[in-house]
Amino acid sequence: MQIPRYPEQPRVSPPKMSADSANHLYIEKLSRGDVFSQHPQLCGIWPEKYTSVAAEATTDCFALNESGLFLVKQNSAVVGVTGYWPFNGKSSKKETELGLRWHGLIPSVRGKGHSRKIIHQLLLAAEKTHPNAKTLIELVPVDAYGAALIPLFTALGFCPVGETETHDWMDHAWQPYHLSIPNFLLTEKNRDS
C-alpha cells in the first residue's frame, strides 16, 4: 500500500529562551509528513535496521490517524523524536495503556538528563487525549542493542513485565517495560517544586 505524502506542517515559533535556557528541549506535535526524510539527522538515533522500522511506523501512524508523534527540539533545531500510541490498538479516552513510540535523541544531546524531561512533556501531552492512561509501555529489543538501553529505561522508572514478545516486523524478541504514569508525573511534580 502506498502511503500518501503530505506537505510539511507550518512551523510554530519555539518558545522564547534566555541564554541560560539554551539547552532546554521541548516537544512539538506532528500530524503528517515523512519525519525521517524531512529531518535526516534522526536517522542517526538507532541502528539502521531499527531506523527503517521507525520510519515506516511513524508514516503509518499518520495514515492511521494516530497523532501522538512529536519532534524533540532544542531552540529550533530538531534533535529527536518521541511519541505515544494506544497500546491495545484502540484510541479512546478510556485507554489505560500507551506505548512509547520510538523515543530517541541524536547522540550529541544524550547523557544530559533530557529523556526524563521529554518523557514528562510527552505524558503531560498524552493526558489531554488519554486522561485514563496509567501505564507507558516500551518494547526493548532482546539483543545487544536493547541490553545497552536497559539502564536508560530503568533509570526513568520502567520495569520489565511479563514474557518477551515477538512481532512480524522484526527478527528478534522484545521485552515489555512498564512505567507507572501517575507515579512518574508525581515524582516529576515533586522534583520541580
Molecular structure report:
This protein has 193 residues and is an alpha+beta fold. It has a single domain, classed as Gcn5-related N-acetyltransferase (GNAT) (Aminopeptidase, 3-Layer(aba) Sandwich). 32% of the residues lie in helices and 24% in strands. The protein has 5 helices and 9 strands. It is globular.
Topology:
Blueprint: E1 25-30, H1 35-38, H2 48-63, E2 69-74, E3 77-86, E4 97-100, E5 104-105, H3 114-129, E6 135-141, H4 144-156, E7 159-160, E8 165-166, E9 173-180, H5 181-192
Parallel strand pairs: 4-6
Antiparallel strand pairs: 1-2, 2-3, 3-4, 3-5, 6-9, 7-9, 8-9
| End-to-end distance | 50 Å
Number of strands: 9
On the 0 to 100 scale, the average pLDDT is 81
Tell me the number of structural domains.
Answer: 1
Helix content, binned percent: 25-40%
Number of helices: 5
> CATH fold name, please?
Aminopeptidase
* Unreliably modeled segments: 1-20
Return the CATH architecture: 3-Layer(aba) Sandwich
CATH superfamily: Gcn5-related N-acetyltransferase (GNAT)
Strand content: 15-25%
User: Sheet with the most strands?
Assistant: 9 strands, mixed
General shape:
globular
Radius of gyration equals 16 Å
What structural class results from the helix and strand content? alpha+beta
Question: Class, according to the CATH hierarchy?
Answer: Alpha Beta
Q: H/E series, N to C?
A: EHHEEEEHEHEEEH
